[in-house]
Amino acid sequence: MGSGERIKFDNKVIDWVDERLPVFTLMSREYGSFPVPKNFNYFWNFGAIAMFMLVTMIITGVLLAMQYTPHADKAFDSIEHIMRNVNNGWALRNIHMNGASFFFIAVYIHIFRGMYYGSYKKPRELLWILGVIILFLMMATAFMGYTLPWSQMSGWGATVIAGFVTAIPFVGESMHTWLLGGFTVDNPTLNRFFALHFLLPFVICAVVFLHVWALHVTGSNNPTGIEPKGPQDTIPFHPYYTMKDVFGLTVFLGFFFGVAFFAPNLFAHADHFVPYDPMVTPPHIVPEWYFLPFYAILKAVDFNIGIPFTDMTIISSKLGGVLALVGSVGILAVLPWLDTHPVKSAKYRPLYRIALILLVLSLFVLGYVGSQLAVQPYVTLGKIATLYYFAFFLVIVPLLSRYEKPLRMPPSIHQAVLDSKKSKNAGEAK
Amino acid sequence: MGKAKTDKKSKEHDETRRDFLFLTAGAVGAIGTARALWPFIDSMNPAADTLALATTEVDVGAVQEGQAITIKWRGQPVFIRHRTKKEIEDAKAVDISGLRDKQDDSERVLEDKPQWLVMVGVCTHLGCVPLGQKEADSKGDFGGWFCPCHGSHYDTSGRIRKGPAPKNLTVPPFEFISDTTIKIG
User: Quick check: ipTM above 0.85?
Assistant: First the structure.
């Protein structure tokens, strides 16, 4: 970025600016003629879709912040004010509220894409780690945003999640008080969560910038996982993938606006429409759907880990649960070093493909378990799925990277494209 | 760096002196920065008015045997239960060697008033308010309290018996300032 030859522009104003600050050269090089593998499938849309959702969230969020009151006595009512009185407030709020869900849908598919086609492998490890950081930041932002309507779900969700820090030995309690600004989730908590909910998206933007920068250094992965070997393997980003991204985005927005406008409370919970009461916990608190699998992992650790045959506890069930929850996301960051198999794409790794599909299945099971009360058979089911989740990363993937025999691979992206055309033509000829 | 040839001894001397200054200056700078940051971090701790709500008084004269009331202390619910004879006996009969957080019932109540159990009504797992204060509430498997969030069961002494919570319900500092008035905090 910023180095190398400048492009000469015909427009004198553009050229004058570019000579002093080469933004036009940069844009044209990174988004115009930028060479990209020519065999992307629709999974490659979700990065751009996630970016679009981030911008949507920031725009609607800033507008909502102009109407919202971050005070314990007024927050709940100010949401109703937005829904009923503010011009198009209902639309802003429904887009923002469901936008969080669809942002997570896009990002989860984006992560799955990375795992299926081995996008985290060398040389894209840092690109992947930046992505994991973005995921953590998104989770923190979404959690704090959910607190702002100051409903029963808001207050008690915040109570439970802030309670995680009390699991930290020795300093947990004082950190908890510091985090909340009091002894319970109350007005000081709401105020700071609002401030942080406003701040973090801009931090996300900064990390997204680094993520995209790293992507433009290494170049994109592709469905074969074979690195481009020359110009026959690539096409310019514009107009080919700008068009493909616009098409994918349009389809995605169809679903998004379908929910936001016709079923805006699809992902909501009844207790999210009851004002927060610090004296009464609702009988069943659950987080938003995108946190359910991780919530189930937290609940799966309901036993102390101690020295066998003694009473000594090393890790209490509470600390264990929190460690498992944080670890379940954090473990993604070290995936490039757990999976050292030379072949990237699951297309040529039949065993890894099965293991990964089972991982997705276990996440769906965990998601369902997370939404249920802690009773049988969900407790056992949750434990089995949690065990598989960690076994995938810590046992299956390291073993597969050592012993799995890949299928025969085409020598290049170009050859792979030609082969798939050939087999398609052969099919049509029959 | 500029002069290629310097006396070895004086060079060593210079570097040691320079390193020392560099390290001490760096250390002072780091401590100074940390000290300057502290007020900013401390600003997020509870404000004076939050801390001012540290004690509260409550009249329990009207609470009949078997009844319970919930009051607010430091923004948290505090359970005050007037225990029945049977509940006290149940709590005393428990063999504490089998408990997760080993506490005898006598450690959790006042010696001369074992019928009054006063506890912070916040589950020690992740901070929900357990059920069991109202007649119709589920009281869990041990006749005390039940936390609906993650299924912790507390007995009639507020001790954790089953579920993920690590500790018994906290007994706040409290005393009877008259026959029927409790001061908490």
Answer: no
